[in-house]
Amino acid sequence: MPAASPSLYAGVVVDTPLTRVFHYRVPEELSSRLAPGDRVQVPFAHRRVHGVVVSLTPEPPIDPAKIKPILSASPEAERIPPDILELTRWIGNYYRCSWGTALAAATPAGIKHDKHLVRRRHVRLLIDPGEAEEQAGKLASRAPQQAATLRTLLAVLSEEEAPGGLLHLDHPRLDGVVNPAALRALSARGWLALGDTEGLPPAETSFPEVEKTITLNPEQAAALERLLSALDQGVFAPFLLHGVTGSGKTEIYLRLISRALAQGKSALVLVPEISLTPQTVSRFRNRLGDLAVLHSRLSDSGRAAEWRRLRSGEVRLAVGARSALFAPLENLGIIVVDEEHERSYKQETAPRYHARDTALVRARLAGAVALLGSATPSLESWHNVKLGKLELLSLTSRAGPATPPRVEVIDLRQEWADVKKPTLFSRDLERHLGQCLEKHEQAIIFLNRRGFHTQIRCGSCGDVLFCAQCDIAMTHHRQAGKIRCGYCGEEKDVPELCPACGSPALKFGGSGTERVEDVLQRIFPRARTLRMDSDTMTNRDSHSQALAAFAGGAYDILLGTQMIAKGLDFPNVTLVGVLMADAALGRSDFRAAEHTFQLVTQVIGRAGRAAKAGLAVVQAFQPGHPAIRFAVEHDYAAFVAAETQDRARHSYPPFGRLARIIVSGRERRQVEERAKQLGQAARKTMPGKYRLLGPAPCEVERVEANFRHHLLIFAPDNRAIATWLDAMAIKYGEDGGIRVILDIDPASLQ
Q1: Is 352 helix (H, G, I), strand (E, B) or coil?
Q2: Mind listing the pLDDT tens digit for each residue in 188-247?
Q3: Of 126, 352, 555, 637, whose CB neighbour count within 10 A is largest?
Q4: Is the sign of the CA dihedral 293, 296, 299, 301 positive or negative?
Q5: Which H, E and C letters describe 305-337, residue by residue?
Q6: Of the candidates 317, 357, 324, 352, which has an alpha carbon nearest to the alpha carbon of residue 341?
Q7: How far apart are CA 509 and CA 458, in angstroms?
Q8: DSSP per residue, 91-110
Q9: Cα→Cα distances 294→96, 340, 430, 566, 680, Å
């Protein structure tokens, strides 16, 4: 009689707030191939859930009779790599969440839900183009949508070589344009055939690339030589590349990654905004070949397809936003975190990790080079240089023939007094913009506010129209004929009467990008203006299509919010206008000045990035504020000196560590009481060098009908914060309608 196979037991983590590892028996049919990193389905509290195997042992941790079996396991090809397992465990420990929550964030939804190849809808013309044009003419009066759809298809087919007359409906000219009902009607007439195609998602829109031989200047060459030396050693080496805007940081990234790929290693590039991905991807693909793109605009199946290409080793370079940090790359040689200062690298939902800091941990686990790049490094990274945790590489001048733009500062207080009315465009900015257009050059206009008007106030009772769910004024979107909340998205028709008193005397005030677009069209009616904000960039490919069109010269003026403020490189942009540069300085956030300095510096840096000289016009009500003054003087060191002096005095980061506890719920009194209890418990266990602020209402107290109060905990270091939090034994999550959230190293205090 053959001996019984020895039993095997798996430690499994599941996506719940519970921090413990659960144990299951490995069925005999899985025992020979199951390994840590495999996704499994297991019985859990009278239901089936997915989890990840994190350990295997022959010894049962509890009574074997009480251990249930694993139900199924994912294919070995989808096994989570060991370094991602270790990275997510670190995230759970550092950011005080469960390992399962961190692993869930690291696994694309399409992998978790077994979505394989992307299904792309296509259309094929079945009749002759001449007949199709004739039929469109007949349909124009009685079925205009069908006629317009047919003519759009004909126009695209006439311009492109479409094999067999087949067009994918995610084509840039068709996505979100053709009418689905009209397509079905035309198909029913027998003029079109609709179907599905399996394959990868469409490639990012490419940008015009001017072929040129780039010679590195001495600073670039020295920085690259140091980085290549670190890469060749194959050990963890963290760097901060501080380069002024236009100094050629990307060229260093490209050459460093090229060396890593030539050595058989893989590489990861993080960018802070989806809007930066298309141009970055285009530049990297043109120089380095095939790569994988990972960002939230991809469909679940599209992201899963890219994940599988990386996991199999088919491609060894990944480019993407924050969550691309978890790309399943083997033999990782280099991680680049571009614009490392950006707060969009901080995840605002669980797990609340910071991609920049977590990238350093991943590089350490992989023995890779970590390169943080910025023209305006975060004070945290600059402080880490002083502590010897990062090695500083500096690029103090622009690459090639480009020189820093000349900057003019407009005091809006004086400007408004002189013209005797509020105005969006100062006389000087309007004059410079006219000259720019006359020379057939391009301009960027920046305002970090959306909508047409940012506030509606009653002239009779003085009441401001606030969102019914959030403590924030509704924004007027004139083109849509709506007022909308920027937090929860609540939308209503524009009222004719004041909801509070019934008066018709509603006054519209404040300006957003939609109003700026309207003013530009009136001042320069022949100028072609492209507006980029979250109201216009609604489709999956909106960013790439818009930026490619601007790069190709289809527009004269690029107008937008912070999505156009950084990383973009357009040689023909010679003028930048910054409207209301100091708008964010009034926020109750200790980082407000730092964010303003970074944003203004980055926007100014979009001008004059090639041979043509650049000019930036900065309009502000507080032109003498250090954040504005040092930004227009291109003086990072002076700003850091001023800002760190104040931070150090109050032990704000980077001179201490910060944690934030947020209490939220529908009933204000319950929220206040729970926050008060937490404050009392914290003070009982608080050591001498610690500090607690609050509880107090958040700057925006109510969001999506939930009242919010917070406590700020200051401690000497991360270990001290962890010890204190453990001593408080707070139960996080939702209980009795009250939710308690912990945010380690918060990027925002709103």
Answers
A1: coil
A2: 777 877 776 545 555 555 555 555 567 898 999 999 999 999 999 999 999 999 998 888
A3: 352
A4: positive
A5: HHHHHHHHCCCCEEEECHHHHHCCCCCEEEEEE
A6: 357
A7: 11
A8: HHHHTT--HHHHHHHHS-HH
A9: 26, 18, 40, 19, 44
